[in-house]
């Protein structure tokens, strides 16, 4: 990435202000170091004490960590609890009238829900799910817009021990189909349509299409929340309106006590192969990670108004929308729409209107809002803000500085949080009252997270050198396995080359003289487009599934706003097209990928060749394609290429 160079020469340091440090939960560097030292001297004691303190247990655990079947770790495994109980019931004694959710719809309509209300809504819907036949361990697909109901649906599953798998509303029917089958879902929860930027997004019809593709016999019922009242096709046997399903259901529901290790959810994410991975999370360990990071990284306080802009379809929307803020008994904002509707001041207006104190978003959103109106924040009263966060991709120092000065007005610490779908919660991030920040660095690991950078054999690297990012000890919030594919779990995350016990994150990084981590990017074939993870293989498989396409290779190219953009090199079965014909095929293929995976995966650029550059053994030379996509001069040796002439064709873009 072009920004890496600027990042590596970044020298600015921002220590926490005196005022922030004084009120912080972890106050000062010594307090942070003391927590880290505690974890290192008695690892299990450290985590055990935290789990006892922060989780309400139905049956206390007597064992902290079981490593006998490593890397299939178990945490707190003889304890019993319920995540929904921890997010709702335990707050009712003293916070029943506190606002839990402030929901702002696309059109600006605001709905507030207290803890008491949310508890009743979750209980009632949990009873409705039971009435539809959902029991402990059953999988439920949630394909919903950002809404109070999406959170209610997730919490209701948790309440009865159902395992949810949320599929982002921007994924296509085809992607949904794959996930329904892989998870063996018994029930699908969706909405008629979602609303984003004044436009309706059809959801129910995608569910119909997905199920219509066949092989989804596991699905017994589809529950549909009426959001817009738009027209939907109805299968009277299978479909059930949300508002009808809850009629007559009691608004209290005894939680199902689950084992600490029982799965809370599966979330599909992209990897190096074509097939998305079903990342499986536990109940107690996941919850503990959510709570501790809310406390340590977001310095969460009782009177905070917390706003994480992530969709519940991503891990960030699980940990920091559906669970973390509620487990803390906090007040959070949930926003249905997009940052640019009705104009690029929408985020700032929301912060002003709801007096948001803690704002957590993605670098790509920050960059696009700089571009669309870098002065806009000044037109709003942002004085309620006290902490800012970013997640999803590296943030370039310029965007960081703008966020700090223009949004945070120079007094809000920025927490740049590095973590992944698989880690469940923040791993490397500053504790804002303790760790000085540097623009572009996610700084230091959370206490108890033993992150390091190693070489390809798992050995130490020379100081200051880049290497691969690993976590050397198991930690409570990490994934437990890949749904239905334990072998892939082992091989992907705990490869034998690294000794089989270190968690391989899939990112490269380096550490500076202060031990700060600087994330460089993925080491596998995963792209990060606007903070969304996309597998190059996934897009390639989608392309070659098109009848026109013989072969395709996909690479990433640096992009000012999106971080990376998708460039596809395509060989058609027929002749290599040029001019209007090429433009026509590009439009068709983009549309095709949108249907196969979802609009987020549409290639930004498609180029055609009579062939792809390959070695004599037939391997596609992706490194070369990356250079071509960037428009770089090819200086490396291309003599091993089977067909050097192809390079000239691939340099041509379709305009
Ligand atoms: C939470 C989330 C994970 C990948 C991860 C890395 C990138 C996330 C980052 C970051 C630099 C940060 N990433 N946070 N890179 N700085 N603060 O985004 O999960 O969708 O699974 O993506 O995103 O490459 O490996 P997920």
Q: Percent helix among the residues?
A: 25-40%
Q: What is the second-level CATH architecture of the domain at 530-651? A: 2-Layer Sandwich
* Class based on secondary structure composition and strand pairing: alpha/beta
Mean pLDDT: 95
What does the main sheet amount to? 7 strands, mixed
CATH superfamily of the domain at 530-651: ANL, C-terminal domain
Number of helices: 21
Shape: globular
Would you state the CATH class of the domain at 530-651?
Alpha Beta
Give a count of the beta strands, DSSP E runs of length 2 or more. Answer: 30
Name the bound molecules: ligand 6R9
Q: What gyration radius follows from the Cα positions, in whole Å? A: 24 Å
Tell me the distance between the termini: 24 Å
Share of residues in strands: 15-25%
Report on the structure:
- The chain has 655 residues and is an alpha/beta fold.
- The chain has a domain at 530-651: ANL, C-terminal domain (GMP Synthetase, Chain A, domain 3, 2-Layer Sandwich), CATH 3.30.300.30.
- Helices cover 32% and strands 22% of the residues.
- The strands form 9 sheets. Strands 5-4-17-16-18-19-20 form a 7-stranded mixed sheet, sandwiched between helices.
- Helix 15 links the parallel strand 18 and strand 19 (387-391).
- Helix 3 packs across helix 4 (43-54), helix 7 (115-131) packs across helix 8 and helix 15 (363-373) crosses helix 16.
- The structure holds ligand 6R9.
């Amino acid at each position: 990435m072009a920004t890496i160079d600027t990042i590596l020469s970044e020298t600015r340091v921002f220590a926490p202000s005196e005022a922030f440090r004084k009120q912080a939960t972890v106050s000062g560097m010594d307090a942070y170091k003391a927590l880290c030292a505690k974890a290192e001297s008695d690892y299990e004691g450290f985590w055990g004490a935290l789990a006892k303190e922060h989780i309400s247990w139905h049956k206390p655990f007597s064992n902290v960590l079981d490593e006998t079947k490593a890397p299939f770790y178990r945490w707190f495994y003889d304890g019993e609890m319920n995540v929904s109980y921890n997010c709702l019931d335990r707050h009712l004694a003293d916070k029943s009238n506190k606002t839990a959710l402030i929901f702002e719809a696309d059109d600006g309509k605001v709905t507030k829900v207290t803890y008491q209300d949310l508890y009743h809504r979750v209980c009632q819907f949990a009873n409705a799910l039971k009435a539809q036949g959902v029991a402990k361990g059953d999988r439920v697909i949630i394909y919903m817009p950002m809404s109070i109901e999406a959170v209610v649906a997730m919490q209701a599953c948790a309440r009865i021990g159902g395992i949810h798998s949320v599929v982002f509303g921007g994924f296509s029917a085809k992607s949904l189909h794959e996930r329904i089958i892989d998870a063996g879902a018994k029930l699908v929860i969706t909405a008629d349509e979602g609303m984003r930027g004044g436009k309706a997004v059809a959801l129910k019809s995608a569910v119909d299409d997905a199920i219509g593709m066949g092989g989804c016999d596991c699905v017994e019922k589809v529950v549909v929340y009426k959001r817009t009242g738009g027209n939907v096709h109805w299968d009277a046997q299978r479909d059930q309106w949300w508002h009808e399903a809850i009629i007559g259901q009691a608004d209290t529901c005894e939680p199902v006590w689950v084992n600490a290790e029982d799965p809370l959810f599966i979330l599909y994410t992209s990897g190096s192969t074509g097939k998305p991975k079903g990342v499986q999370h536990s109940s107690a360990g996941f919850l503990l990670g959510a709570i501790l990071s809310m406390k340590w990284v977001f310095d969460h306080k009782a009177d905070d108004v917390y706003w994480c802009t992530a969709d519940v379809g991503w891990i960030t929307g699980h940990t920091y929308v559906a669970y973390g803020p509620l487990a803390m008994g906090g007040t959070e904002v949930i926003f249905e729409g997009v940052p640019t509707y009705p104009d690029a001041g929408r985020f700032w207006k929301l912060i002003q209107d709801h007096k948001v104190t803690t704002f957590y978003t993605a670098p790509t959103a920050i960059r696009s809002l700089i571009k669309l109106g870098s002065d806009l924040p000044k037109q709003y009263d942002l004085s309620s803000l006290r902490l800012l966060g970013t997640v999803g991709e590296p943030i370039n120092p310029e965007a960081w500085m703008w966020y700090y000065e223009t949004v945070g007005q120079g007094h809000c610490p920025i927490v740049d949080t590095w973590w992944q779908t698989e880690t469940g919660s923040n791993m490397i991030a500053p504790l804002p009252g303790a760790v000085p920040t540097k623009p572009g660095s996610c700084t230091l690991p959370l206490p108890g997270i033993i992150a390091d950078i190693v070489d390809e054999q798992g050995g130490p690297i020379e100081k200051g050198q880049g290497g691969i990012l690993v976590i050397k000890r198991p930690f409570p919030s990490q994934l437990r396995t890949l749904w239905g594919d334990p072998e892939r779990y082992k091989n992907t995350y705990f490869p034998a080359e690294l000794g089989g016990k270190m968690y391989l994150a899939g990112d490269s990084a380096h550490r500076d003289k202060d031990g700060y981590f600087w994330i460089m990017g993925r080491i596998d074939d995963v792209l990060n487009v606007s903070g969304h993870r996309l597998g190059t293989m996934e897009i390639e498989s989608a392309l070659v599934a098109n009848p026109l396409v013989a072969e395709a290779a996909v690479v990433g190219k640096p992009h000012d706003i999106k971080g990376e953009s998708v460039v596809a090199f395509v060989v058609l079965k027929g002749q290599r097209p040029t001019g209007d014909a090429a433009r026509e095929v590009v439009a068709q293929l983009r549309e095709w990928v949108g249907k196969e995976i979802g609009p987020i995966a549409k290639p930004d650029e498609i180029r055609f060749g009579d062939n792809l550059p390959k070695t004599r053994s037939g391997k596609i030379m992706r490194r070369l394609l990356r250079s071509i996509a960037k428009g770089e001069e090819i200086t490396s040796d291309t003599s091993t290429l089977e067909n050097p002439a192809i390079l000239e064709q691939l340099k041509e873009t379709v305009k």
